[in-house]
């Protein structure tokens, strides 16, 4: 049986629409918002306005690419949270209107769970999918979580950041260095030519499986401030080594707790998800542990790491199977539930 879902993602600064047929993605169209580049972060008001401009064109394009008519769609799924309220309202209002007009079910999706469920998208030649239970390090601009995934519907957060998220650590470090937002991909790019051992930054001492990234940010800030006093072009002269060392520190902090979580739960199926899972060093570190510790690792294709609607469509598909629908009075939420 064909189940065709229209997924809509608008939680932060990407407006995205995707069409899924069972577990195969037929289209995944994302409009990025360049408007935030020079502000060092996402400006909520500008994000909502840009979503309003992009939502209809991205849906239109997704339908066109998928060669799907509106009447063939079984349900529409949207990100209900967490995220920026103004941004979420655009996607949720669109989905409600779409469901009402076509008289089809409406499905709400949690953004963080959706990041994890990309591992169940069927792609050409893909043979292995994670088996339950598995661990997923979900690392994005707003969250850093180690999740014990028990089923497509059951997610237990067993560790999380007590302050900044890993993506935020990348973005804030980049901002201190004068790089535009989002800084994560740029640090990754410059790090490729740098020495990760040149500078060392202190690691947080947080008990259990939780993370903290604020101390790292402060130490980078003071380190650069002191060196800029002596050498005003210090950042420019050391850009590659700085990026490599900062990236090395963030990835090591992430991996340390992930290793601990694996040892504690005795689970060796390890996945990563979220924007930071696009980071080349994190991906490499996972493959190294696969060899050393016998992990079986699951790393999403690049197009499913940063925010996209394919992840909402696959999460919506699983909820559709359970007939887990919501009514028109559903409201978005800003924080992880
Ligand atoms: O999942 P995502 O697209 O949005 C949120 O849900 O927050 O994640 C965005 C985050 C940003 O902080 C961005 O800098 C980071 O993912 N990011 C990266 C890379 N690509 C995106 N961080 C490090 N290396 C990358 N290659
Ligand atoms: Zn995200």
Précis, in short:
By secondary structure, this protein is of the alpha/beta class. The protein has helices at residues 44-66, 85-102, 111-117, 166-176, 184-191, 214-230, 234-237, 239-265, 280-293, 310-321; strands at residues 4-9, 14-21, 24-32, 75-81, 106-110, 134-139, 144-149, 155-160, 269-273, 296-298.
DSSP helical segment count: 10
* Main sheet makeup: 5 strands, mixed
Percent of residues in helical segments?
Answer: 40-55%
CATH topology of the largest domain: Nucleotidyltransferase, domain 5
How would you describe what is shown here?
The protein is of the alpha/beta class. The chain folds into two domains: 4-119 and 305-321, ATPase, nucleotide binding domain (Nucleotidyltransferase, domain 5, 2-Layer Sandwich); 129-300, Nucleotidyltransferase, domain 5. Helix content is 42%, strand content 18%. The protein has ten helices and ten strands. The strands form two sheets. Strands 3-2-1-4-5 form a five-stranded mixed β-sheet, with helices on both faces. Helix 1 runs parallel beside helix 2 (85-102). The chain is globular, with a radius of gyration of 20 Å.
């Amino acid at each position: 049986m064909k189940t065709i879902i229209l997924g809509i993602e608008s939680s932060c600064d990407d407006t995205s629409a995707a069409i899924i047929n069972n577990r195969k993605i037929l289209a995944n169209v994302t409009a990025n918002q360049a408007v935030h580049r020079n502000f060092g972060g996402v400006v909520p008001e500008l994000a909502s306005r840009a979503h309003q401009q992009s939502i209809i064109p991205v849906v239109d394009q997704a339908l066109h690419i998928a060669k799907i008519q509106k009447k063939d769609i079984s349900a529409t799924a949207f990100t209900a949270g967490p995220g920026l309220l103004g941004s979420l309202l655009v996607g949720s209002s669109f989905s409600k209107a779409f469901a009402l007009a076509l008289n089809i079910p409406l499905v709400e999706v949690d953004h963080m769970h959706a990041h994890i469920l990309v591992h169940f998208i069927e792609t050409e030649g893909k043979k292995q999918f994670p088996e339950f239970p598995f661990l997923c390090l979900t690392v994005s601009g707003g969250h850093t979580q180690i999740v014990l995934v028990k089923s497509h519907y059951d997610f237990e957060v067993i560790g999380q950041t007590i302050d900044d998220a890993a993506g935020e650590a990348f973005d804030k470090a980049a901002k201190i260095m004068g790089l535009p937002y989002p800084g994560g991909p740029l640090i990754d790019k410059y790090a490729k030519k740098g020495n990760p051992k040149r500078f060392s930054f202190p690691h947080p001492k947080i008990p259990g499986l939780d993370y903290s990234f604020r101390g790292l940010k402060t130490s980078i800030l003071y380190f650069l401030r002191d060196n800029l006093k002596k050498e005003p072009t210090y950042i420019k002269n050391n850009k590659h080594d700085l990026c490599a060392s900062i990236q090395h520190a963030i990835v090591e902090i992430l991996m340390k707790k992930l290793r601990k979580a694996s040892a504690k739960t005795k689970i060796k199926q390890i996945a990563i998800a979220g924007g930071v899972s696009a980071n080349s060093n994190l991906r490499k570190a996972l493959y190294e542990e696969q060899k050393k510790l016998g992990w079986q690792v699951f790393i999403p294709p690049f197009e499913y790491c940063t925010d996209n609607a394919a992840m909402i469509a696959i999460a919506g598909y699983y909820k559709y199977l359970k007939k887990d629908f919501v009514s028109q009075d559903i409201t978005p939420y800003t924080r992880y539930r």
